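Entry type: protein chain
Record version: 2
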Amino acid sequence: MLYRLWLLFFTFARIAALVLGGGLAMLPVIEETFVNKKKLLTAEELLDVVAITQTVPGIIAANAAVSIGMKIAGFAGALAALAGAVLPSFVIILIIAMLFPALSPDNVYYLGAFAGIRAGVTGLIAATALKIGKKTLTGRFEVIAAAILLAAALYGVNPGFIIVTAVVSGVIYCRICAWRVAKAGNGGGK
């Protein structure tokens, strides 16, 4: 148990310290560590964590840390993962906040660093979206729902409305599938 707590703390601390871009950008590292190397989560469990962390309020990285920590080592695991995810970010942002007033807004190094960071983060998020899409968009319903909801997001529809719509449409779809299975099991209702 203690090994798992240290693993959660140090893995999330390493991710928080080295991965730029927040929660979505850290997913490939989480998958590599907890799914591929340590085999403490399945790919499906990680997808469930991603879905949950995207729909609840709060910081994605902290939500993911708590969810994964809870799955792997219970409440103590959630605390260890959360501490690991928060501590490096807190220290880094504190240092940046202390140095920020001294930076000139037209400093080429400052501007270049942030331009590079923005491009890198965009690439990491795009790669994560592609990986999740390959695992999630496996049927006609998923593809159609994702396309409609992506269009809604691009047209500026409120993200809360998109999430609620996705949940409701998923529940309706599953109810229809269950009804079809039950109907087929009854000989087509004859």
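Comment: The chain has seven helices and no strands.
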